[in-house]
Amino acid sequence: KSANPQWREQFDFHYFSDRRDMLDIEVWRKDNKKHEELLGTCQVDITALPMKQTNRLELPLEKHPGSLLMLIAVAPCTGVSISDLCVCPLGDPSERQQISQRYCIKNSFRNIKDIGFLQVKVLKAVDLLAADFSGKSDPFCVLELGNDMLQTHTVYKNLNPEWNKVFTFPIKDIHDVLEVTVFDEDGDKPPDFLGKVAIPLLSV
């Protein structure tokens, strides 16, 4: 019930050099659970923004009244990675020892914001639902921790895909829940949901 909403939400997007350079933003209006209306869209050219500083942007909505006020900072990724199993960041014993030292009890208060990190090896899925008429699916896996999101590549025409990827997330809140969702890629249409599992960090 507001024409001037304030969200004050922060989202972290992991921007890699092989991705598109445009950030697409949509603003939606929701009457109830069934009715939604698009109030406008805008784009931000990430490559045009200065690095390592907070950029204050007032973005007019295309073909609609109103504007969106955002703070966007482009900075080098720290603590986030996607790698293959053969080059797993924790595969080196000396590196594991350094990390154990970094998070030992005597260093607990050295950096309060450095809680730790989570490493997830996404190996494969088994007996997925067939989402295509061919009796197959084009599955990919999305991992979300807080407002961080990373995803695997798509394995086409396969109900037993193997991704063999290693994902590393910085932990910002020990009470966060890791959500792992499998989708079926469906061309230009929204992906189809194939399944989900939620893992509280405190259970690990």
From TrEMBL:
Transmembrane segments: none annotated. Coiled coil: none annotated. Residues 1-59, 93-204 form the C2 domain. GO terms for cellular component: synaptic vesicle membrane. Belongs to the MCTP family. PANTHER family: C2 DOMAIN-CONTAINING PROTEIN (PTHR45911), MULTIPLE C2 AND TRANSMEMBRANE DOMAIN-CONTAINING PROTEIN 2 (PTHR45911:SF2). This is MCTP2 protein. It comes from Scytalopus superciliaris. The gene is Mctp2.
